[in-house]
Amino acid sequence: MKSTLKDPEPLLETQWPADPVKPRKAGWGGLKRRLAPYGFVSPTVILMFVLMLVPIVMVIGYSFMNNVIMTKHPKFVGLDNYVTILTDSVFHTALANTLAFTFASVAAHIVLGLLFAMLLNSPLLGTRFKALFRAVYVLPWLFTVAIIAVLWRLLLDPNGVINFLLMNAGIIDSKIEWLSSPGTALFAVTFINIWAGYPFYMVSILAGLQGIPKDLYEAATVDGANNFQRFLHVTLPQLKPIIISMAMLDLIWTSQQFALIWMTTGGGPINVTEMLSTYTYKLAFSQYQFSLASAAAVVILLLSMILAFFYIRHQKARD
């Protein structure tokens, strides 16, 4: 007979809990990983500190002293330099000229940039004509400020091409000194700045136009909208963020324009084209009033910071 007894089961080994893994203490390797991002940005931070923060602090300090650099032991004079600047009639003229020059340039840049961008985006033009017009319209953007200043000084010379064409067309009877006459100098430099700056708007708005979905135009057409209504209710709302951003940047750039003014009129004649930038430059390097120039520079910095604040605020709202 077979035995009914089962073989005894093998004894299982006792399973003791494994020792818990102890976390390694963050050593030099962990510290390097944490400091690596700061190491990458440190060269930029150092450059900004040396080239921006230190000069700004020095200029602010100079603005509270009597004539620094020219005086061996300058003394603290408080807000006297600011009072002198803010009560100077030439400063008032420079501020008014800067405002007129800036707002006229920005407004014209927006209008011309939008018109030329829509022209280049129009299906009525062939590919070859679009390429030709793009090359012609973007040409002012390729020139440096020095080339632009020399070019327009030659064109606007009393014996230049502009007077020649206008006299032959019967528009004027005598030669006009566009950059030397108090009645036309500010208009002339504003026109030059408009001509030099509109391609930036044109290229940016053209990119925005090409990014607008065609479905929006098709839906507006189905709803019975004409060309003007499509432009008003589809194109402009889609381009609004781009236009506002560019306008704020242009306000900052144009209000600080120096090279074009200096190389065309030098702020003259009779302070007609004097800007805040040329006014500050003349205080420092023509009159050697470095403390007054520092005070004027601080005022310009505050005005620029106000514009920069609204620009950053708009960008955050847009994001």
From TrEMBL:
Q: Is the keyword Cell membrane in the record?
A: yes
Predominant location: membrane
GO cellular component, as recorded: plasma membrane
Annotated membrane-spanning segments are 40-65, 99-120, 132-155, 185-209, 247-270, 290-312
Q: Which residues are in the ABC transmembrane type-1 domain?
A: 95-311
CDD domains in UniProt: TM_PBP2
Q: Give the membrane topology.
A: Multi-pass membrane protein
Q: Which GO terms describe its biological process?
A: transmembrane transport
Q: Look up keyword Transcription regulation and say if it applies.
A: no
What's in the keyword line of the UniProt record?
Cell membrane, Membrane, Transmembrane, Transmembrane helix, Transport
Q: Where in the cell is it found?
A: Cell membrane
Family label: Belongs to the binding-protein-dependent transport system permease family.
Q: Per its UniProt record, what PANTHER family does this chain match?
A: ABC TRANSPORTER PERMEASE PROTEIN (PTHR30193), INNER MEMBRANE ABC TRANSPORTER PERMEASE PROTEIN YCJO (PTHR30193:SF37)
Q: What protein does this entry describe?
A: Sugar ABC transporter permease
Q: Which organism is it from?
A: Arthrobacter wenxiniae
